[in-house]
Amino acid sequence: xxxxxxxxxxxxxxxxxxxxxxxxxxxxxxxxxxxxxxxxxxxxxxxxxxxxxxxxxxxxxxxxxxxxxxxxxxxxxxxxxxxxxxxxxxxxxxxxxxxxxxxxxxxxxxxxxxxxxxxxxxxxxxxxxxxxxxxxxxxxxxxxxxxxxxxxxxxxxxxxxxxxxxxxxxxxxxxxxxxxxxxxxxxxxxxxxxxxxxxxxxxxxxxxxxxxxxxxxxxxxxxxxxxxxxxxxxxxxxxxxxxxxxxxxxxxxxxxxxxxxxxxxxxx
Length: 268
Description:
The protein is mainly alpha-helical. The chain has helices at 18-21, 24-40, 44-61, 65-70, 76-89, 105-128, 135-146, 156-186, 196-227, 246-267, and strands at residues 94-98, 101-104.
């Protein structure tokens, strides 16, 4: 199994579910509102309600819980680092001392809340966007949402196209990296032993061919787009026309009620 197989950024999980069928423009708006909510909550009751809401979204998405949990593996180091940093940096009532460092009760509380906040942020945004929405639909939705800015000269289509290509090539480049590392390992390269500097030097044998491969793929993509007479968004049609349905309105209303309830618990 590839060491990058659990990275879910840019990977679409095909399924038939309520979340999959939502308008991608609504999903982007809900992700922004959800991120705002996650950063606002600190009350245990409010945070618990957000956790319940996330579990309900996982249930409605038909994405296996294991798949959602595995998507946290690439950021596990960041979660652990943020937890340890908060435990030792927040001042308060000292529970235990390790030399010049002290573990405080307030530090543990802040660290737990920060870890939960990061987990909610990563799993929620991944679930609403990349796992349940194809990169093409995300790009089209971004273009539609940013289209009013085109009157002021903002390149909405070009920005959406760059985002679509970036999301599409994330899993491709990860697979390419894994292939290069396996090929170099078969030639005697060792990425597991030695100090930090030794490992960093060993990665040079991966980065150089990876950059060459990335530029080659970019050139091939540019040639393919020119061969298909791609000239930007003017006059372009879409395979799937986005329409705001009754299900979208119902889900948006339910999310608005959920948003208000969380804010009420937070500030009451």
